[in-house]
Structures are given as C-alpha cells and as structure tokens.
Design brief:
- α2 packs antiparallel against α3.
- It contains three helices and six strands; from the N terminus they run βααββαβββ.
- The radius of gyration is 15 Å and the shape is globular.
- About 30% of the residues lie in helices and about 25% in strands.
- The protein has helices at about 10, 15-30, 70-90; strands at about 1-5, 40-45, 60-65, 95-105, 110, 115.
- The chain has a four-stranded mixed β-sheet with strand order 2-1-3-4.
- The longest helix is centred in the middle third of the chain and has 19 residues, at about 70-90.
- The protein is of the alpha/beta class.
- α3 (about 70-90) links the parallel β3 and β4.
- It has one domain (about 1-120): 2-Layer Sandwich (Macrophage Migration Inhibitory Factor).
- InterPro entries: Tauto_MSAD, Tautomerase/MIF_sf.
- This is Tautomerase family protein.
- It comes from Marinomonas foliarum.
- It holds the Pfam family Tautomerase_2.
Length: about 130
C-alpha cells in the first residue's frame, strides 16, 4: 500500500497522474501486476503540513509499505525511478519529493482472509 501526502491545492490536480507514475515504477522495477494498485492520497490543508526548508508547496511525501524481501538495490532502483519519472512527467522537482519504504514481514500483512506468509498465489515476486 502506498500513502501520498501533500498540500491539497498542489496534490489534488496531479493525484491521478501521480498514481499512474507511481504504479508504472512499481511495475517496471518490482514487477507488480496492473491490478495491484493500492494508493491512498491524503491532501492536507497548508497549515496541517509542515515540511523542511528549501522546499516549495509542491512538497510531496510518498510512503511505500510492502512485504520484506526485496534487495537494497531494488529499493534504490525504485526510489531513483520515482524521482526521475515524477520530475519528468509531473514537473515536481526531486527536492520536493520525499520517499520512504517501510517493510514488514509477510506474517505482518493481512489480506483476503490470510496473512502474507500464507499466500501462495501472488502474481508477483517479493524476493527481487
């Protein structure tokens, strides 16, 4: 699951395209299937979103939650792909994008009435 935070006036107009960009990177780097898009957008009021100096109102935080198992190089490839594609397709400069990847063990995920370590029918690989 992916959660994206930003100032509503900047995030709302781009969230559909941003979702496409994020999912495209997830597909190309992680091999995620087309139907595995789970994005949540949290548009915030300007006075509810504090961010570091040197950033603009386009500052966007992307939290990626996924099952553990991917190599550090894969994480880095995903982060770099996101920076490149968000800037080239949406014009949001990399300085205005913060990306975190949070991994949990498969047994800490619950979906379709089972835990992630019980799932044997995933259409994508976790260990890449």
């Amino acid at each position: 699951m992916i959660v994206v935070y930003g100032i509503k006036e900047k995030l709302n107009p781009i969230k559909s395209k941003l979702s496409d960009v994020i999912h495209g990177c997830m597909q190309s780097v992680l091999g995620m299937p087309e139907d595995k898009r789970a994005h949540r957008f949290v548009p915030l009021e300007r006075d509810d979103f504090y961010y570091p100096g040197g950033r603009s109102d386009a500052y966007t935080v992307i939290e990626i939650n996924m099952m553990a198992g991917r190599k550090p190089e894969t994480h880095k490839d995903l982060i770099k792909a996101l920076f490149i594609e968000i800037e080239s397709q949406l014009g949001v400069e990399s300085v205005d994008v913060e990306i975190t990847i949070k991994e949990q063990q498969p047994y800490q995920w619950g979906f379709r009435g089972i835990t992630g370590d019980e799932a044997n029918d995933l259409k994508y690989k976790v260990n890449v």
